[in-house]
Amino acid sequence: MKKKSSKIILLMLLSMTIALTGCSGDKAEENSSTITVGIPQDIEDSLDPHKAVAAGTKEVLFNVYEGLVKPDSVGNLNPAIASEYSVSEDGKTYTFKLREGVKFHDGTLLGADDVKYSIERCMDDGSGTALVEAYTNIESVTVPDKTTVVIQLKEEDTEFLAYMTTAIIPASNKTPDTVPIGTGPYRYISRSPQENIVMERFDEYWGEAAQIQNVVFKVIANADTITMNLKGGAVDMYPRVTSAQAAELGDEFTIEEGTMNLVQALYLNHNTEVFQDVRVRQALCYAIDPQEIMQFVSDGKGVEIGSSMFPTFEKYFMKELNDVYNQDLEKAKELLAEAGYPDGFSFTITVPSNYQQHVDTAQILAEEFKQIGVTAQIELIEWDSWLSDVYTDRNYESTVIGVDATSLTARALLERFTSDASGNFVLYRNADYDKAFENAMNATDESEKIKYYKECETILANDAANVYIQDLPQLVAVNKKFAGYEFYPVYVQDISKMYLVEK
Domain residues of the chain, as ranges? Predict the structure, then answer.
């Protein structure tokens, strides 16, 4: 038995520093405070919310941008910059009424033309590519008056409302990649590359004002310094600490527990010759024990998954797929021999070094693969290199990472594995899968759509498209000076809900 690791793993760090002023009751009446939020990497893709692809970027920008609707902590889609909306009987026409007096962070009033601009920008980035795949179904966006936006779909889509969380930006802002301007509870102030991103409370916010005055998202690339930063007071909250780190923090911190809402897997590049043989992929699946991985990496916490869906999406999640490949080392060796690899083979697992939980998982996978004669060499790279080499250029053999849902839809998790999807970084191609996904898109009845989504999940599992592991646990260390932290069913940190408390 391998030596047990007590690390739970952190996917993204969050921390805060404060300066308390007057306090009264449970909440501090004065909130001229600063909260420092630790993040494991700088924003390397884009500050433009329509072009950002990294979950860590979206986690930060959630505080700056809003859409027509906005998710809450229990998964409801509530009106945001739209005060109300209606859907036609045929499900093809969505009419949104905008709130009056909503301001962008530059002080200008939001108008229907800004909404039209933002949606049409995501329909076509100027090169014929949709920035939001679901928007290829939009027939037209019209503005009957300055407070009304009408979106006409080509075909009914029962999940379409979830895509109305897309950020609305001013039509006048031609440089959103460097000058982010949104309508959210916090406005962007500055960015120091590889150091921090600074925000402050937007006092003209249309909704309930944030409690904390200032936010600093601090880049902490070295995961080993998290506890030191917390105990030393440099940061006051960290959303993804290990159990060992949590145990070190003492009574000054509250530890909240949830899950990350990610599909962690060993993602395989299907252009790599050895992984083009389904028997090889199946052998890797038979070689691993997710429960063993969770025990070593996170003291048994986390939730096992057998396909590209996590348990928060309860109506889509198929727990039975966890048993498609229960660990069977002899079966794995037989499949390798049939595929022409009786003595095993070697491959590389490329892992972003700043995500310790993925590094730990890769190390355990390598040990498990040794039992079937397969050698996995681990290559650690920086996050910006992972984005360019793995995600963009597809120049890798395999990687351990967590994939999130960019919206509260099953589509967001499953579409990336269709043959022509721009986000298909594993280059998976399966005609049966494409057909099942197409059927899901064409389904107008929710139960029928769920059926086809589950067919997609089943194909991914049976075809061993990737080596699925778990939805990672999330331990949040919060200095007791703060309260109000909420878990969300999507990958975000909502700082606006937090507040200072009297000690």
Answer: 34-63+184-259+477-500, 69-165, 263-471
- What is the C-alpha separation between 327 and 484, in angstroms, rounded? 41
Kindly state the average pLDDT of the residues 278-289. 98
Contacts of 435 (CB under 8 A, 6+ apart): none
Residue 380: how many other CB atoms lie within 10 Å: 15
pLDDT-based confidence at 422, cuts 50/70/90? Answer: confident
Q: Which two tokens stand for residue 459?
A: 């194909």
pLDDT tens string 32-90: 589 888 887 888 788 999 998 877 888 899 999 999 999 998 888 999 999 999 999 99
pLDDT digits (tens, 9 = 90+) for 197-233: 999 999 999 999 999 999 998 888 787 888 898 898 8
Helix or strand holding residue 490 (H, E) = none
Instruction: Give the strand pairing for 346-352 and 398-403.
Output: parallel
Q: Which residues are within 8 A (CB) of 119 and not within 5 positions of it... i.e. 6 or more apart?
A: 135, 138, 141, 149, 151, 166
d(CA 437, CA 40): 34
Residues 83/98, Cβ–Cβ less than 8 Å: yes
Specify the CATH number for 263-471; select among 3.30.1330.30, 3.40.30.10, 1.20.120.450, 3.10.105.10. Answer: 3.10.105.10
pTM of the model: 0.79
For residue 411, pLDDT over 80 is answered with yes
* pLDDT tier, 172 (very low <50, low <70, confident <90, very high otherwise): very high
CATH number among 3.40.50.1980, 3.40.1190.20, 3.90.76.10, 3.30.230.10, domain 69-165: 3.90.76.10
